[in-house]
Q: What sequence folds into this?
């Protein structure tokens, strides 16, 4: 295993070990369990991830986190890194999505989900991807700020499954349904992986549900390390799962596949057909409809459905990861002064 001058395992070596394991997972019909911790949850002692720990007495192998907020709100980065460091110091994995605000629009919330839905014209996107333009400079300012956060993670020895500009085939985000999406992905890769030399990123490209036109959105110069789909459907046996998998893997069948977001968990038969490297369960009400603040939720899971899903023989929790891999992931990662309680109390009902 490669090491840096200080003797710690390099992030490049960690990245290679994690990616190798992800490839092996699908050969052995095994799947990692992930739970999302959304942006407002990073400040809380009891998160969706903690609720799963409390109910199962075991830790999910992947913690999902959100990079939105890390640019405009300086305290957020500290809480984000604290969560990631705690997970990886224990030998677990971390995935991070990036709901990037529209950098060409003024959003009074700074960085907020609604800021990602400010539309952008094809002409403005083209200008944004043209070096030297005012639009390009605005985009670069956000990417450089994100690069600092990712660089701080790298300095802590933290490797992440990085999922930017997801659900690109849908119309809700500013990057959605754009012919120049592949150029956007490649430009981001150039800045972060090439220019800033961030070797702690495993790049994840994920569409929404069926993703019927994957070639339109597939990167041209920098292929992703993992492909996936986000599925929120009330039927755990919906053919959307298998059809979506076939679509996103059609561009390169050798690339591992994951369920990068799910509401209702797939049935055991469906998950066996899909053979995903991981399944990321969205948090909050999707883990228990009693926690919903929006009324009835057809795509949410009952607690017993979550419990049965996690008990499937193919599912891997954090303590079931190979000892050598856990040692590699955790090498050099410390969190001596955590911002969160290690054993938070989670009330039965959300306040």
A:
């Amino acid at each position: 295993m490669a090491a840096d001058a200080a003797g710690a395992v390099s992030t490049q070596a960690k990245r290679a070990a994690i990616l190798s394991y992800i490839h092996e997972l699908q050969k052995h019909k095994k799947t990692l369990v992930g739970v999302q911790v959304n942006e407002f949850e990073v400040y809380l002692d009891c998160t969706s991830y903690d609720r799963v720990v409390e109910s199962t007495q075991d830790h999910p192998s992947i913690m999902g986190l959100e990079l939105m907020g890390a640019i405009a709100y300086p305290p957020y980065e500290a809480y984000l890194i604290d969560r990631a460091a705690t997970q990886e110091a224990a030998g677990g994995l971390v995935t991070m999505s990036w709901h990037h605000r529209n950098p060409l629009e003024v959003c009074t919330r700074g960085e907020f989900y609604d800021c990602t839905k400010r539309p952008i014209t094809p002409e403005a996107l083209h200008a944004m991807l043209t070096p030297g333009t005012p639009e390009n400079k605005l985009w670069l300012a956000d990417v450089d700020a994100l690069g600092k956060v990712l660089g701080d993670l790298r300095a802590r020895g933290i490797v992440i499954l990085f999922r930017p500009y997801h659900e690109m085939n849908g119309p809700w985000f500013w990057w959605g349904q754009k012919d120049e999406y592949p150029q956007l992905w490649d430009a981001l890769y150039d800045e972060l992986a090439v220019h800033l030399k961030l070797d702690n990123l495993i790049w994840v490209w994920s569409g929404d549900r069926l993703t019927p036109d994957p070639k339109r959105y597939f990167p041209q110069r920098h292929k992703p390390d993992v492909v996936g789909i986000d599925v929120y459907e009330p039927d755990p046996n919906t053919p959307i799962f298998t059809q979506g998998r076939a679509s996103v893997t059609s561009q390169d069948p050798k690339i591992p596949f994951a369920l990068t977001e799910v509401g209702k968990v797939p049935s055991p038969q469906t998950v066996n057909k899909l053979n995903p490297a991981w399944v990321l369960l969205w948090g909050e009400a999707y883990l228990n409809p009693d926690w919903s603040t929006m009324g009835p939720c057809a795509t949410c899971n009952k607690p017993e459905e979550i419990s049965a899903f996690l008990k499937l023989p193919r599912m891997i929790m954090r303590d079931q990861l190979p000892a050598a891999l856990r040692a590699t992931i955790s090498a050099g990662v410390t969190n001596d002064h955590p911002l969160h309680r290690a054993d938070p109390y989670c009330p039965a009902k959300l306040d």
Q: What stands out?
A: Confidence is low (pLDDT under 50) at residues 1-7. Residues 69 and 111 are 5 Å apart (CA to CA). The chain is about 35% helix and 15% strand. Residues 134-155 form the longest helix (22 residues).
